[in-house]
Amino acid sequence: MRAVCNAWYPVGMQASSRGTLRRWWDRRVLPTLIDKACKSHAILEERMRWVPQASGDILELGAGTGHNFRFYDVAHAVHVTAVDISPDVLAKAVPHVRTAAVPIELLQVDAQTLPFDQHRFDTVVSTYTMCSIDNIERALSEVRRVLKPRGRLIFVEHGLAARPSTARWQKRLTPAWRTISGDCRLDRNIAALLTENNFALSELTTGTTEGPSIAAYIYQGIARPG
Ligand SMILES: C[S@@+](CC[C@H](N)C(=O)[O-])C[C@H]1O[C@@H](n2cnc3c(N)ncnc32)[C@H](O)[C@@H]1O
Question: Minimal CA–CA distance to 72: which of 64, 83, 84, 81?
Fold first, then answer.
């Protein structure tokens, strides 16, 4: 099916104004939207289930405003390197660093080019991030490179729904949705992406959570470098 549009902006708006509007939105509005959208009750329950399982030297991918930080368990987690591409989003994570039980280092880093040595991390954590990374294949290859051979990728991600009618709406709405949501795609099949990019799924749960159905189909589990 053809995309409805490549981007959504008020009719008649010039390309240069669109760029300015988009930059203003991404810098001033998006960090607050991400912060609020990522702390619903259902999402907090998923964080509580998965984040405490992270152990050793940990990389958190697209850490956003730091909602996972309080769930790292000091009994297993030694250190967390929390990266995000957006300095404006990261600024909102600072208060959560101070209250975390585990040492957390915040870095402005692009997940597509991770500045870390091969086989450094025991665990990579990614929650609601794989939808937004532009070249997700490249980022997954970087995750594989920096994970130890027996390391784990713990993921909780929304993506392509199993129900065909919802999936159709996800594909139709993604081009417009990306322009207001920090490039979030509604229609990525996370399980397929992981297996196609040489991860083996040792645990996978899929299903619908609360919220609008286009963003409520969740993939959660553990993947290991294949
Ligand atoms: C929907 S937010 C989720 C934030 C956080 N993981 C959470 O669970 O609350 C997606 C995050 O991915 C970040 N992001 C997008 N592309 C990225 C990239 N290439 N490298 C690193 N972070 C990226 C965004 O800046 C944003 O903070």
Answer: 81
